[in-house]
Structures are given as C-alpha cells and as structure tokens.
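Subject: design request, 306 residues
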C-alpha cells in the first residue's frame, strides 16, 4: 500500500477500498458493483470511479467490450493492503451464515463449505447482561452449570473480558465463591438474576494480563520437504514461529494446536508441529491440565453420587 495515500472522508475512502478490493481479487469493477454495494446513484458511482482513476491512474483501464474497468498489469494498491486472511474470513463468514452473500465484498464467491461446528446456545439476553457488566464493571448473579457440580447453582461473578477458545465463548470473570479468576462458558449460564457494583478486588487477573510466547516448529521426524511446507503453512522463519497467547488461554491454545499431548504419541505426519520450548511453559501447562483433570474426576464422582 502506497505511503502517499491521500487523506479522505471515511465514506469516500471505503468506496475506494472496495474498488481496489474488487480489482485485486476479481480483476474488474464497474458502476453496478458500487451501486449494489453502497446503494448510490449511477452519477455517484461514476464519480467514485473517476476519483479512483485520478488518484491511481495506472491501476485500471476501461474495457469497452466488457463495459467494465479491469486491473492493469502495473496495479499497485493504494488504499487497501491485500490480505488473504481477510478474504478467507469473508468466505468463512458467509459459509457459517454470519454474513449474507450480498453483504460480502466478494462479488463472485468461489465454491466453499466449512466443517460443521456444534451450535452453542447462548441466549441473547444473557450475553447482553455479560457485556453490560463488563462495560459498567459490575457483578452479576448467574445460575451456572459447571462440570464440577451435578446441578446448576447461583454465584456472583464479575466479568471483565470475553474469550473464544475456537469452539466456545467464555466470560473471563472473578468468581466470588472461589475467590479467583475463572473462565465461565457463556452457554452454560442458565439465567442472570441481578447485578450490583463489583466488589473491590485486591488482586488483578494476572493470568489474563500475562502474554506467553508459544515457540513452535515442524516435527523433527518429518522429511526436509515436509518441514519446509509446514514452515510455509505457519509462516515460520528459521524453522520456528512465536505465537503469543494469554496465559489464561494457554490450555485452550495448546489443545487446539494439538500440543497438549506427547508428540511421540502420534505419527509425525499427524502431529505436524511441536512445542520447541516446552520447558518454559511446562509448569503453567501442567498446573492447568491437572486442575482440569481434577475437575473432570470430581464431576464424574459427584455425578455417580447424585
């Protein structure tokens, strides 16, 4: 993206970014694209295209036969930095029904699908109460079904952040019952009864504030060519990459990356990456793993007694 990018109003710049998005990813753009996306008149669409030409004259040329502007061979983005992750995020959002196809910037969506994920039954009213409590720094009384108890129970929590582990949304909160910060799965909050000012806490959420660097690399038993492709997959440099993660989310990150088990327990082709600096994280990881194992054990015992 050019360093001499002009300063423009947000609405104008957004339309110029859209023009550039279509040029880069689809190779062409016309007045109809702008009219459909922004609900503007033909004159306004023509004005936006002419403005783009004036600012980036070498980026597109008019194709009379196709009645559209096409990307030139000297195209150089000025308003938008092409991002593969952003493009695929739009495709995924459409695939999961989060964004309607007509609301995406992609004009011709490629054939796509996504592996199904179990629906998480989060009540809108519950989520709203959690978000409001975070914003107002309040405590809320929730009826929560934990896996360490056979039946839901009421407890006061003071949420301060939302967290996503790749499958479920959590409310990172101070729990008055346990006297510590914990992750509460939002879909397991059955109802919220009342709210009040959050109590003053002597300790901060150190596990949330601390960032841990997960240093990962290709499995050492892969072939040189296989290692190279894994390095490309994960954007590694010199055979490794550092993934920053909050210590509070360390357990979930390791599990999602498949790093929560002994690498030797799986074939190298299945366990494609390894944690290069496991020793630095071992104590933290072990503490969280043991705690969750104890929770699962206590849950099974209490359910048996129930």
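Subject: RE: design request

Done. Sequence follows.
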């Amino acid at each position: 993206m050019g360093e001499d990018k002009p300063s423009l109003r947000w609405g104008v710049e957004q339309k110029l970014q859209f023009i550039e998005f279509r040029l880069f990813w689809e190779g062409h753009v016309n007045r109809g694209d702008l009219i459909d996306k922004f609900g503007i008149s033909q004159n306004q669409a023509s004005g936006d295209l002419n403005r783009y030409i004036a600012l980036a004259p070498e980026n597109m040329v008019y194709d009379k036969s196709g009645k559209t502007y096409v990307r030139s061979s000297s195209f150089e983005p000025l308003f938008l930095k092409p991002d593969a992750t952003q493009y695929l995020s739009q495709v995924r959002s459409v695939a999961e029904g989060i964004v309607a196809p007509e609301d995406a910037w992609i004009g011709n969506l490629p054939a796509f699908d996504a592996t199904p994920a179990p629906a998480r039954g989060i009540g809108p009213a519950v989520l709203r109460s959690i978000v409001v409590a975070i914003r107002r720094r309040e405590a809320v009384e929730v009826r929560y079904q934990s896996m360490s108890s056979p039946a839901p129970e009421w407890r006061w929590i003071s949420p301060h952040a939302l967290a996503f582990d790749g499958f479920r949304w959590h409310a990172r909160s101070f729990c008055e019952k346990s006297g510590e910060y914990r992750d509460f799965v939002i879909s397991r909050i059955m109802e919220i009864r009342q709210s009040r000012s959050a109590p003053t806490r002597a300790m901060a959420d150190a596990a949330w504030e601390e960032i841990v660097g997960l240093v990962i690399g290709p499995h050492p038993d892969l072939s040189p060519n296989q290692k190279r492709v894994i390095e490309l997959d994960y954007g590694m440099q010199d055979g490794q990459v550092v993934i920053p993660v909050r210590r509070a989310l360390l357990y979930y990150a390791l599990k999602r990356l498949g790093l929560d088990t002994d690498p030797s327990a799986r074939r190298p082709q299945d366990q494609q990456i390894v944690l290069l600096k496991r020793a630095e994280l071992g104590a933290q990881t072990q503490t969280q793993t043991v705690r969750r194992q104890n929770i699962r054990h206590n849950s099974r015992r209490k359910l048996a007694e129930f």
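The radius of gyration is 25 Å.
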